[in-house]
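Page 47, continued from p. 46.
Same chain as before, 490 aa.
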Amino acid sequence: MTTTGCVLPLPNFGGSPRPAASPEAGWRLCPEIPAALLGKAPSDFTFECKTVKVPADWNKPDNGQTIDIEVMRARATDQRDRIGALMVNPGGPGASGIDLAAYLTRGLPVEITRRFDIVGFDPRGVGRSTPVDCYTDADLDATFASDPDPVTWPEFQEVDALTRRMVDGCKAKYGERLGLFGTKQAARDMEAIRESLGEGKMNYLGYSYGTLLGAVYAQLYPQNIRAMVLDGAVDPTQTSIESSEKQAMGFERAFDNFTAWCTQNRSQCPIDGNARAVVEKLMQDAETNPVGNPDGRKATPGWIFWGVVSSLYTQARWPDLGQALADLQDGKAEAIFALADSYADRGPNGEYTNLFDANAAVNCADDGDPATIAEIRKLQSEWRQKYPLFGAPLAVGMLTCSVWPTEPEPYPTGKAEGAPPILVVGTKGDPATPYEQTQKLADMLGVGVVLTWDGEGHTAYPETRCINRYVNNFLINLEVPPAGTVCPPQ
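Result:
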């Protein structure tokens, strides 16, 4: 199971003519979506949805096969001096852009929501857009529970067999269609969405994997961009092996930062011992004597590992991890399962969304050079030494694409010639998209301008006043920050 790079949105945190939302355009009111996510639909926004039909394969657009892309537009009731639509994507791949748009009505600065429609879409294969749905809940439970670092060959074969069974289920259900969910296809869908919105030029805010999607769009349609912000940069030029190793490095660094924080904040991290030593011992003990949970699950090393991973995406969850580890030491597993289930998108009824089905379909359609089993075993051993907690699991996570059944369709990795400046935002403590990738994405595009946040967690906007000031000014006035701008942690 690979780590996703999706944003985990927390609900707590001179204009162009307005395009007509006529019945002919296919818009329908859909306040039930934000109501389900937020408890009630915000009264200061209107929510409209539509279906955009796109070719199932943009390489064969006239063969009659189509995919439905679901789109939601949120518009502030006090909107004025409208600039245009701001398309958003939360990453993953596999996370819902529609859900993100709903959350961002509560999270984006009012300066932005008053000037832009917030437009979210579920990329092909995701959520509401012809979803890839081929993993069973039982198999996903088994995957998250499995040993994140199967050391012996029989242990590794057990994880490999589970992975192959899940992949075979996808192949049986979708066949060659599994190859149609890559990023290059999705970027072309974005252009179809822009046209359906009636927008002359697009504004885009992409997080994590959404930066890769935005970068590919920028290479294919540079002339159709007004403003693009890429937050939590993915380096498109790296191989899947390089990407996994960088994530291992990023999570180790973030966990070191959590460990130091924990030592200095015992009231919020009431564990007995050093955080790294505590996690290692809890996972070791769980191999033979896992703590039980009221729902019948056992807190195996896998569930503990994914609970830790989940908590590192935002510093706001560090106290949750501290308490979860303390509870585990006391023989209680509810808190670590809450963290792991949040990462896994597992509901209280044991049902999963299709986040990880889509994640595999997109990643493996993109991966032109997947790791072999021999390479994975070698890297598992090497990375265990270099990145003690996260290295081996991230090597094992490459198994899925190594046995994926369809031919990949790699995305382009060139300059966005003809595009305006693109703002690339990086966070120094980002675990999932390590900061080192920020400048690499900016350089690849050729028009990238880097903005740095000296903070923790995955992605930066809208976390602090400093970041907000620069990003808002860029989106509204198209002014780029001075070279080398670094925003402080708070």
